[in-house]
Design a protein that fits this description.
Elements: E1 11-15, E2 18-23, H1 25-28, E3 38-41, E4 58-61, E5 66-71, E6 74-79, E7 83-86, E8 95-97
Antiparallel strand pairs: 1-2, 2-3, 4-7, 5-6, 5-8
Length: 101
């Protein structure tokens, strides 16, 4: 069992503009085919550069706060409880941005 609200980080990224903390949730639970992580994305930061995945889909669930989600369709807000699926390939390109305070 793992708690998604913990702060025992597996990875901390401190590259300017892309600063976040990460719990590799699926790995901790014994998963080897599922990529599932919990991120804390500080105000003004981005998850990663705009990108897509060849080998897997990605699921975003916003646990608290509000983020901006950039996709091929443009940018839209996502907030507490919202879930989005990014499919494999260019149609699933995405970037998560915390524009809040």
């Amino acid at each position: 069992m793992e708690n998604v609200y913990g702060n025992d980080w597996d990875v901390t990224q401190d590259h300017p503009g892309f600063e976040w903390h990460r719990i590799r949730l699926a790995r901790r639970l014994g998963g080897n085919m599922l990529g599932a992580s919990v991120y804390v994305l500080e105000p003004g930061q981005r998850s990663f550069p705009y990108h897509f995945h060849h080998g897997n889909e990605e699921l975003l669930v916003v646990l608290e706060g509000e983020v901006s989600v950039r996709t091929p369709e443009g940018e839209a807000p996502a907030s507490h409880g919202d879930a989005l699926l990014f499919e494999r390939g260019p149609r699933g390109a995405h970037q998560i941005i915390n524009r809040s305070d």
